[in-house]
């Protein structure tokens, strides 16, 4: 009884040009896996808190409980500095290192609350929770302690012992002569008499200088700070402002906050004790860089909505250029800043339901500044009140004044500080109902705006956000850490080839792209990853700069319509047929005039005749065809496993051979 089976063979078309050997797709993928690195905490109690990357050399600085680490770009430990534990008590003010304390002392961990690189002075600013929040200034090279100011009240930032309570921004003077300033915003933990919630400090060049962290301006009536009034705690006993993110742009410094609402039913009024599920609002704070009296302080509420759901609780944020595609959709310039923000659903921060929907939204900074300008103009026309309930418990009417308010107006000693009542709504880009988003970072690659989002489960979502009207494209998801959530601090390597993400116990270097995971042109260009294109001559998916001679016509494509297409006639032949004339039509290929070779697995290689995009060649002769043994309809010969040879171009085309 005859059996009819089909044996697969491969036809390979190779350009006979000078070439270099290339890695196979599997080897490339393994290389990318080797590029992924991890660094784990030495002790589960020494959890990671903050991360910063030196933009000049790619070195990393990692703030943890009781330790500061310096790591190489490949996450090799280069230096460490121990910061705790120490005997302490939060009730000791000033701290016991300044004067004796009658409170009982206990060995206390030092939580890293602020970690910043001071580029002008080549030092690291690391502030902890011990001793009312004092800071260390460490040398970048080896983490040697340069200074630890602790004897003045300006040296104490906040005694809170959780890491997400302080945000800082270093601002340089435009003339480059004066010392830098540190804008610092912090939760005060019910101790407003000790700690301002937001302030501007001097960063002296000398790390041991007497004036380190002194307020930029201070006299009997005015200082470069704002404190939460004691009256506010009468209304909301556990009131505090939780700072999420800070940045500088143009003439201003901005902070993003989460804070309890002061008025309205169920919003946290008199009679509600600590820990109650209060109603919270997300607000942006703006200050002029060169405003020592803080007359420019303005607050504006932010929020987002998508599909009928309201997202009001700010979780994380990041500022990045818009990029050409997103800028066109938002109606702004491609170099203008866009604020990416993660919000969770609802308005209660301490919700009992752990699973909350979350949304990624975009705010053109121009839109926020325009809303603030409108509010300033209306207030200086005498319209409305200052509308800043936590700072001015009583309504204070705006005062009229004849003056011009331009885009860089920095306030007067009237109508300040000021609140905006009308919310600025962001443009919804992406939402997630099951795995809450916890962190975000973004950048522009060849006009495409890309957001990288961390989640509660430790996943990293790669999202293309070019056109909100058509929806964002989540083009890849990777498990970045073993156990989540991913913390707010994420950072790119200086060349943007890697992204550093962390949980409390693991820091991971993740490749921004792994193009080599896509084995075919269609899967490569259909992935949605704008980093990836098809390197035609090497039959691999890669970045354009990784593809040899990619600038030449037909050698690299980013358009799925331009994937190489081959067809062969006839499409199948019997094994009893030899020297069959084959016609191969090749589309979207480079110039083939240098010659091609038809390779039939490990059976034979023959020269092909090129006529435009057509290639003529003959199937193997009888003496070149191996004997095929058939048993129960299953071919026993193995299908040839072809590896790339030293040719510039190879394609696989499968034809079937009928076995009678």
Automatic annotation (TrEMBL):
Transmembrane segments: none annotated. SMART domains: PSI, Sema. It is found in: Membrane. GO terms for cellular component: plasma membrane; semaphorin receptor complex. Residues 1-21 form the signal peptide. One of its GO terms (molecular function) is semaphorin receptor activity. Pfam families: PSI, Sema, TIG_plexin. One of its GO terms (biological process) is axon guidance. Residues 20-512 form the Sema domain. Keywords: Disulfide bond, Glycoprotein, Membrane, Signal. SUPFAM superfamilies: Plexin repeat, Sema domain. Its main location: membrane. PANTHER family: PLEXIN (PTHR22625), PLEXIN-A4 (PTHR22625:SF34). This is Sema domain-containing protein.
């Amino acid at each position: 009884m005859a059996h009819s089976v089909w044996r697969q063979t491969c036809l390979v078309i190779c350009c006979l040009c000078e070439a270099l050997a290339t890695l196979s797709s599997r080897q490339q993928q393994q290389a990318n896996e080797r590029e992924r690195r991890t660094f784990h905490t030495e002790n589960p109690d020494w959890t990671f808190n903050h991360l910063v990357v030196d933009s000049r050399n790619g070195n990393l600085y990692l703030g943890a409980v009781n330790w500061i680490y310096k790591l190489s770009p490949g996450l090799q430990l280069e230096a460490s500095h121990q910061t705790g534990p120490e005997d302490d008590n939060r009730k000791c003010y000033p701290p016991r290192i300044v004067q004796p304390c009658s409170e009982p002392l206990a060995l206390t961990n030092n939580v890293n609350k602020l970690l910043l690189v001071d580029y002008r002075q080549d030092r690291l600013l690391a502030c902890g929770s011990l001793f009312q929040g004092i800071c260390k200034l460490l040398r970048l090279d080896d983490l040697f302690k340069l200074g630890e100011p602790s004897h003045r009240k300006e040296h104490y930032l906040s005694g809170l012992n959780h890491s997400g309570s302080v945000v800082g921004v270093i601002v340089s003077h435009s003339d480059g002569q004066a010392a830098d300033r540190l804008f610092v915003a912090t939760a005060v933990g019910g101790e407003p008499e000790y700690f301002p919630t937001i302030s501007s400090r001097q960063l002296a060049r000398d790390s041991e200088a007497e004036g380190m962290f002194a307020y930029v301006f201070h006299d009997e009536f005015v200082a470069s700070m704002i404190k939460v009034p004691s009256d506010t705690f009468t209304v909301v006993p556990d009131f505090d402002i939780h700072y999420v993110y800070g940045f500088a742009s143009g003439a201003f410094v901005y902070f993003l906050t989460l804070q309890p609402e002061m008025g309205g039913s169920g919003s946290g009024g008199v009679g509600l004790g600590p820990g109650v599920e209060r109603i919270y609002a997300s607000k942006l704070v703006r200050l002029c860089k060169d405003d020592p009296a803080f007359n420019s302080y303005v607050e504006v509420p932010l929020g987002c909505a998508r599909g009928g759901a309201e997202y009001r609780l700010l979780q994380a944020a990041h500022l990045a250029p818009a990029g050409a595609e997103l800028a066109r959709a938002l109606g702004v310039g491609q170099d203008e800043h866009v604020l990416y923000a993660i919000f969770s659903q609802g308005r209660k921060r301490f919700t009992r339901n752990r699973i909350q929907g979350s949304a990624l939204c975009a705010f053109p900074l121009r839109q926020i500044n325009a809303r603030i300008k409108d509010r300033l103009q209306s207030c200086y026309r005498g319209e409305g009140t200052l509308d800043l309930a936590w700072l001015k418990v009583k309504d204070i009417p705006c005062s009229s004044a004849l003056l011009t308010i331009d885009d860089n107006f920095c306030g007067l000693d009237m109508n300040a500080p000021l609140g905006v009542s009308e919310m600025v709504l962001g443009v919804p880009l992406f939402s997630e109902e099951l795995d809450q988003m916890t962190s975000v970072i973004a950048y522009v690659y060849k006009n495409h705006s890309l957001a990288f989002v961390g989640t509660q489960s430790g996943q990293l979502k790669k999202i293309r956000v070019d056109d909100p009207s058509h929806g964002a494209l989540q083009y890849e998801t990777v498990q970045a850490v073993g156990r989540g959530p991913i913390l707010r601090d994420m950072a790119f390597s200086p060349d943007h080839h890697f992204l550093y993400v962390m949980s409390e116990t693991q820091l991971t270097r993740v490749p921004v792209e792994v193009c080599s995971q896509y084995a075919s042109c269609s899967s490569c260009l259909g992935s949605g990853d704008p980093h990836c294109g098809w390197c035609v001559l090497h039959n691999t998916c890669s970045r354009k700069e990784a593809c040899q001679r990619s600038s030449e016509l037909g050698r690299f494509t980013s358009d799925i319509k331009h994937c190489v297409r081959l067809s062969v006639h006839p499409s199948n032949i019997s094994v009893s047929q030899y020297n069959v004339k084959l016609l191969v039509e090749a589309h979207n290929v480079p110039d083939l005039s240098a010659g091609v070779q038809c390779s039939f697995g490990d059976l034979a290689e023959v020269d092909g005749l090129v006529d435009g995009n057509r290639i003529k060649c003959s199937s193997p002769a009888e003496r070149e065809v191996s004997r095929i043994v058939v048993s129960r309809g299953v071919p026993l010969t193995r299908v040839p496993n072809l590896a790339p040879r030293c040719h510039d171009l190879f394609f696989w085309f499968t034809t079937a051979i009928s076995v009678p």
